[in-house]
Amino acid sequence: MEVRRSARRRRTVTAYQESGRTVVLIPAAFTPAEERRWVAQMVAKLQTREERRRRSLGGDEELMGRARALSAAHLDGVPQPASVRWVGNQQRRWGSCTPADGSIRLSSRLRSMPEYVVDYVLVHELAHLIEPSHDARFWALVARYPRAERARGFLEGVESVRADGAGGDDGDLVD
């Protein structure tokens, strides 16, 4: 937990997650009592938001439904995965796919990321069910997801933070 006071900030309070810790930005003029009250309120708000987001991502069954919907919306319904599941053992990849058996696995680290990023990784893995390599045809399929570039940028940002601080360079973001 880190509280940052700002002389420029007059009334607004903001909180966010940064490198695994909560940062709360408050006006410099706040009293210690106001600081405690606002920090508690903002931490509770972040926790509620995170719990709501986790519920919306759901378990493996919801992930399969999400994959089917993304396949229909962006890949003409062609890729039909046999299984889609969250896994906790992928520390160097965001997702993986085995085209031979139609299985897709997503790193549970994605659960803390925006839904459009999770959807991008799913589309990436679904595209591997059509085109196993990372050739031009594959990237054309992935590009059908409208937020692909934004999601790639988000993941690259996460990776650069990890490379600078806690984890090293992971090379290819999604396989």
Automatic annotation (TrEMBL):
Every YgjP-like metallopeptidase domain range: 87-148
What protein name is recorded for this chain? YgjP-like metallopeptidase domain-containing protein
Give the InterPro entries listed for this entry. Answer: UTP_pyrophosphatase-like, YgjP-like_metallopeptidase
The protein's organism comes out as Geodermatophilus amargosae
CDD domains with a match to the protein in the record? M48_yhfN_like
